[in-house]
Structures are given as structure tokens and as C-alpha cells.
Amino acid sequence: MNDERQHKSLWTVTTPPRDFPSLPGDLEVEVAIIGGGIAGLTAAWLLKRAGKKVAVLEMHRVLSGQTGQTTAHLTELLDTPYTTLLKDFGEKGAHLAASSSRAAIEQIASLVETLAIDCGFTRVPGYRYAETEAELRELLHEVSAARQAGLLATFTKEVPLPFPVKGALRVEDQAVFHPRQYLLALADRIPGDGCHLFENTKVVDIHDGTPCRVVTEGGTVTAQAVVEATTTPLNRVAMHTKLYPYRTYSVAAPLEGPLEPGQYYDSRDPYHYIRTQQVDGVPYVIVGGEDHKVGSEEDTTSCFAALEAYTRDRFPVRRITHRWSGQVIEPADGLPYIGRNVGSRHVYVATGFSGTGMTFGTLAGMVVSDLILGNENPYAALYDAGRVKPKAGARDFIQENAEVAFRFVADRLSKPDGHHLADVAPGEGKILEVDGRKVAVYREEDGTPHAVSPVCTHLGCHVHWNNAERSWDCPCHGGRFSPTGRVLNGPAVKDLPSRKLPVK
Known about the structure:
26 strands, FAD-dep_OxRdtase, 6-stranded mixed sheet, 10 helices, alpha+beta, Rieske Iron-sulfur Protein, single chain
């Protein structure tokens, strides 16, 4: 694999970047949107189309966050099985989850057509397949539940994969596309008519009020409403108890043999997700999986190795050309949180999209824009950010938050990886104990060291080194930092403070 394509998604490499300015100073608009991914850009476009003056504020570059790291399935097959949704949300809730996903897919289809966006949007069938008898028994229950929720779902043994399976749930009329081509077309249409799109503009604080104030490093934006379209909301402690951050891995490879266009999901736990896409005339297979809790896997390069082996073993490919990873936020009860934030009057959140971020991100833009515009939205109540479902996901809620509490204490008591700079190899990061306190140390390939505090600036957990992505990752709430301590992923908004190393 070419070095420049290491850990860059197929979407990023095959689409040239845009250049939008950073916020030059104070600004007044009607709606401030934090985050330049699919949820933020969809909301911005829908609000602008309705006549609102909006400003999108992106911490890094537009589409450089989790939207740029997607595998871009547009699907009604959600991470939470319909058997579970029927039990936890009832038949009406499961039906709304299915119909809202369909509405999101059709929203994208409509914009692709009306704006004439060339993004490879293609309708395809989706398959969730079983490879063992145990998986098959569970799958048959899911077929029944999916049909009860309103999906065009059938059971079939005719699955167009190059390896044998026991059978599959087939659902019609799903879709694939090039997400970056689609979303850059929206981004290009946002500036103008009193609307703005700013890159390299980090938000450091939000004040709810009349008006709201969004404080950035470059100025303050005042607005009647604020949308937090970030992977996780900024410094919202109560919300974070219901959000669980995971890393997921993806690879792409040119197909050297036939594979019918479609979406495919195995029934493992964690599962693998597969789909096809034609990019620049080349047919690719894209495979994702090997998910784990952020900061819990020491050797993250092994996740890529396992995924590459899985891909080579099962599909007609000779070389892996792209590999990348992303952040998946799992919600406590199985569905995203979209709507007015808890305790807020004018601040809205969109988070917890699980593994279907393109579908739910689009839906979030639709729901939030309707709420701000005062339009009735049939899905708003289901995804209400303040909802409490005591039974749904209770075991996960207890387990995940107990793990956070454990990590908060255990990482402080754990032994350091070393005591001397010589213990850190070039290109590596380790936690050292220096003069009685822990320091996160990274050495560049040329040997230049960088030392920062290992204490996450969100809620004080200790970061862990991610050797595949070369980042410091927080296992508590998913904050990620560059080797030199710069914020890569929220919920943290402050960089890791620098630390001095003794001169030896």
C-alpha cells in the first residue's frame, strides 16, 4: 500500500479537498451549527433552503471527521435488531425506526436528483447472512421482526457471495454512494445569502440563552438556536453516560472478480459489513468491522491485519489499497439521540448513530431542522434526546459506566510503560513516569520527543496510545488527541497540556 494512502479513506483520497475560511471574528446568524459532517451539512442545507441564515463551524476540515471515515451504507438494517426494537420500543417505535431510515434514504435520493449531484448513488439490495445453524435460527426471528416493522424483507438462500452461507435476510431498495462527493456538493451551496461555512474553527464553549453564544478561538457567534452535530456533544456529562465510543476499522480493495452490487452483513459479534462501490471506473469492495471500545485495544494494528485477512480470504481481491478507522457512538437504548438537549432551550444535539451514521446523520438533519423551523416531524418523539428508557439497554448502561469508573481509577494506579525516554522507540507513544508523575511521551521518527499530560481534558481519565492511528485515545468517553496533544475527537475541547522532559 502506498504510504500516502495509509489510514486515509477511499472517499478522502478520491475527492479533492475544498478550502473554506476560518471564522474571522464575531458573527450573528439565526442558527449556528457545530460540526461539518453529514448531520451538520444536511441541517444547514435544509435550514438555508427554508430561508434561515446559518453558520457551520468545523473544528478541522469539512468532512474530515467521522463522516469522512464511514463505509457509507444507506440502510434500514440498523445495528439494533428489529427483534430488540419491537421489545424495547413497541411495534409503533420499531415501525417508526424503519420508516425514518427509509425517509432519510429518500431525502438523499431527492437531493441527488434535484441538485444533479454526481456521487454514484445506486439502489441495491441488502443482505444480513448467517453462516452457522445458530446464526440462522436467530436470523429467521429477525426476518419476521423486520417484516413486522414494515421492511420489504424476505428470507433467501440465494445470496450472491463468493462463499457459502446458510441463508440471509434480504431487504430491498437500500443504497450506496460516494459520501464525500455528495456532501461537498451540499457544502459548496451553503455559503452566501447570509450563510457561512467555516473550517479550522474550534468551539470552546456554548451558552444557551436568548440569544445563544457559541465561543470559538476566532470569535463568538450569536444565534437564536445552536445545533451540536458533533460525534458527541461538547462537555455534556449527563448525555455521555448514555453514549459509548467504539473504534471501527475499514479496508477497500479493487475487485479482481465478480461481486454483485449490494450491502452485506454477517451475523458475528462484532459483525462485519461489506459493500461495493464504483469509484473512478474501478469496482471496489469495502469491508468494515473489528470494532472495540476506544482505548481498550493495545495493538490496534492487529485490527487492520485481521480485517485484511478476512477480506482476502473471502473476496476476489489481490491488494488492499485503502484502510482507515472511525469512531462509532453507541446509544444506551439502541437508537440515536436527536433533538433539544437535556436542560437546554435552544441547543440541539444529534449523536449516537451506531454503525449507520449516513442514514441517521441525514435523519438528524431532517429532524433538527424541522424542530428549529417549528414544523411537525413524525420521528421527533422517538429520537427525543431527553428520553429515558429504563429497561432498554439497562445492562449496557450499567456495564459501560462501571467500566468508565474502573478506568478512571485503574489507569491512575497502573504501572507506567517506562521511566526513560530511551524506553520509547521512534514512531511510538508510551506513558512514562518522570519525576514522580506520569507523562504521555511520543517520539517522532527522527527521535524528536513530545511530552503531554496523560489526563484527558474532558473528565480526567487517562489516555492510551493507539499504535495504528498514532493518537492518544481516552477509554472513558472517546476523546482522541494527536501525538502532540491536539484535540482530534470530542467531547474534549482543550488540548492536552505540554510537559517538560528532563534533559539527559
